[in-house]
Amino acid sequence: MARSLILISAAFARWTQIAPLTITEAPSSTLRADIYIRFMSMGPTEDVYAFTNMIADGLALSSGLINITFNDDFAWNDDRLFNYTAVHEIGHALGLSHSKVEPAIMFPFFEGVIRPIHPDDQAGIHSVYGWKNPRWSRIDSNVASKGVIQISSASGAVSTLDGLYQLRSTGQILRYNPSGTWTSVDNNKDTIQISGSNNFLYQRHTDGTIWKLTAGSSTWQQISPASSNVIDISAAADQVYMRRKDGWVARYSGSGQTWLTIAQPSAPGSRQLAASDSATLWNLLANGDVVRSEYPYTSDGWQVVDSNPSNIAIAVGGEEFYKLQSDGSVVWLDSTEWFWRTIEEGGSVAVYAVGSFVYSRHEDGSVWRYTGSPGVWEMLDGRADAVVVVGDRKGGVWEMVSGGDIYRLVS
Ligand SMILES: *[C@@H]1O[C@H](CO)[C@@H](O)[C@H](O)[C@H]1NC(C)=O
Ligand SMILES: *[C@@H]1O[C@H](CO)[C@@H](O)[C@H](O)[C@H]1NC(C)=O
Ligand SMILES: [Zn+2]
């Protein structure tokens, strides 16, 4: 299969899916195709997979002057490697140079890692060709839409509950089917919040009760008694956490209606919780302190990571931690060096992370995606009315705008 035309076409499609480009195979009688693909002997080395060359005057390319050459001596037994190499070389043929962003396909070194298309690759192709039109596709229009969440389980925990959900102001919960329809999951006027991760979807009622739906089941199980002490819930990894008015946080024990209180290192209440794939719990306290604790969160397990009154929000994607400061900057914690790195200078009012993706919403309502280079973000929506942005671990992005319309990012 490797080296087949089908794989070459699929590799071209990876770029044409996200950019307004049409690429068709030229018949062999064509005198001058734009891009030639050829196989040439370069020796049986694992260092040279392929290369792309072109003749350009620095301003324009003429057709017929781009060659993608694969090493014919290399044993192309692995379709995934051939496809990956082709996607990288086609990136060059379409005008992209190498990236400094290590997880990007346009990173110059293969290092044995077959990478998915990265925001940096997307920002690159968009900067050359622009976007498909329309760039967003509307998937719902209802003034009662109140919010959207995405359940996107970590690999190994992929669940039938994975997907996009919306909560309406009527209390109804609906799930989006990729075919374009919405299915009602529950319809209870008391529901005021939903959250979910891995195998579970949760809803919180006005009376403080919390209910759990398990993947593969159709009945909701009550997991918390009525209480006026509950502020909100947040699900992450295989856990669900609760913030309480008395300033404490708690997590569900996993059975009955029992929650376990997690003592905090200092007195102020919690402003926001976020947890990593390995269930490390991050807690932004009301005074701006950021503390973290590893499962199962003993009272002496908290570590104060940052003390800064200007911290106003936190986000966790995979194992990576981000914080938003009141000056609109987004700061990432480089945990290999325990170093804070500003990845956005200002303008942000909300940060959202999922898997390896990070999104920022600006005060003007625009939505941005981080490319992996500090300071470099791609604008995804400039219509200036986004109120919620969510994504999945494969790079899918959805937004709800003021007025309740929900959109899916196409390009
Ligand atoms: C592309 O390959 C052809 C031979 O297959 C060669 O004649 C041509 O010079 C090459 N073009 C570039 C830009 O290297
Ligand atoms: C080809 O590689 C790209 C980038 O890794 C990936 O997104 C795509 O799914 C692959 N396609 C096939 C047919 O393997
Ligand atoms: Zn290259």
Overview of this protein structure:
The chain has two domains: 2-124, Collagenase (Catalytic Domain) (3-Layer(aba) Sandwich); 136-409, Methylamine Dehydrogenase, Chain H (7 Propeller). The protein has helices at 5-16, 79-93, 119-129; strands at residues 35-40, 50-56, 61-71, 136-140, 145-151, 163-168, 172-176, 182-187, 191-197, 200-205, 210-214, 220-224, 230-236, 239-244, 249-252, 259-262, 270-275, 281-285, 289-293, 303-307, 311-317, 320-325, 330-334, 339-344, 348-354, 357-362, 367-370, 377-381, 386-391, 397-401, 406-409. It is mainly β and 411 residues long. Helix 1 crosses helix 2 (79-93). It binds 2-acetamido-2-deoxy-beta-D-glucopyranose (2 copies) and zinc ion.
